[in-house]
Q: What sequence folds into this?
């Protein structure tokens, strides 16, 4: 099969590799789409021991298996289904296994991969290939974050909401907030094109670095330490700052009066439980026109080095690697 190798130093090499052999409890998936994700910038820069790519959609290719031919997304966390977290439905926080597809196990920048059966999320036929990967990070991650903090900041209460970072996850967050009943939504980002897209989704601009307005809910999707620190200052008393974006670098926090002299919640969330999936499919069904605007291009594997560099530079929103 054809695959991509990430040796580091912002390089991607194309190579051939043997087809993966599924282990017990796994099936072979023929990849059809893998969405590029900003978190893959880390292996792009530092290198990866396994094939990256974790927003994966494909078709099970296992003749004789009950799942053969099933259109499926790949749920990133490999989970046991038996630990205390899994029994509660928190499959994304399995206490027995700590493995992620595309990070610890080979991912979707390749034509085929072996997938644990419990990580297959069936995709209805009315969800087209190009949109299916959006159900993972773009929809699933921020929808879970908003659902998680809703009891602390109910949608019916007054007060503005801010999304920091208008990348795919932030734009998905705007739609998630609207679907869950929030209004008066603002967005901040440094890129004009992304702000314009967020405005067309119904959000209003908030200048990056502006500390003059308070927000009862801040959904931080950029991962930038400056946005996180400012968020602690401009979250309203009794409000919530929920951290969704990722950043591996140390975060030095300088406490000041704006942070110290109020009660507020700072929450970290990760991915989503499998129990959210059915509701997220319904969201995508109802709002395909808007979600299609996030997918700005599909391309074949030979173009991955060029397209990933453009994506990392912020020129593209949610490009899809297509194995058609």
A:
């Amino acid at each position: 099969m054809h695959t991509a190798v990430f040796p580091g130093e912002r390089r991607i090499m194309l190579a051939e590799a043997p087809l993966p052999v599924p282990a017990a409890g796994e099936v072979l998936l023929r990849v059809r789409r893998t969405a590029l994700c900003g978190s893959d910038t880390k292996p792009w820069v530092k290198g990866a021991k396994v094939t990256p790519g974790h927003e994966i959609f494909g078709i099970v290719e296992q003749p004789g298996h009950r799942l053969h031919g099933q259109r499926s997304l790949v749920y990133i966390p490999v989970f046991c289904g038996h630990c205390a977290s899994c029994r509660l439905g928190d499959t994304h926080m399995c206490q027995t296994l700590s493995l992620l597809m595309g990070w610890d196990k080979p991912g979707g920048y390749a034509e085929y991969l072996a997938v644990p059966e419990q990580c297959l999320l069936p995709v209805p036929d009315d969800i087209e290939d190009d949109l299916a990967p959006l159900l993972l990070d773009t929809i699933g991650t921020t929808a879970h974050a908003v659902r998680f903090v809703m009891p602390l900041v109910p949608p019916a209460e007054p007060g503005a909401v801010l999304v920091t970072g208008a990348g795919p996850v932030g734009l998905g967050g705007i739609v998630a907030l609207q679907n869950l009943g929030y209004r008066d939504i603002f967005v901040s980002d440094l890129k004009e094109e992304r702000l314009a897209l967020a405005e067309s989704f119904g959000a209003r601009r908030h200048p990056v670095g502006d500390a003059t307005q308070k927000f009862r809910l801040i959904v931080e999707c950029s991962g930038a330490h400056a946005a996180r620190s400012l968020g602690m200052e401009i979250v309203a008393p009794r409000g919530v700052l929920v951290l969704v974006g990722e950043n591996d670098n140390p975060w030095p926090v300088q406490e000041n009066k704006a942070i110290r002299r109020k009660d507020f919640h700072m929450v970290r969330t990760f991915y989503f439980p499998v129990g959210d999936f059915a509701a997220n499919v319904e969201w995508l069904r109802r709002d395909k026109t808007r979600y299609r605007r996030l997918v700005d291009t599909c391309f074949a594997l030979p173009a991955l080095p060029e397209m990933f560099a453009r994506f990392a530079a912020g020129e593209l929103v949610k490009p899809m690697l297509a194995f058609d």
In short: The first strand starts at residue 2 and ends at 8.
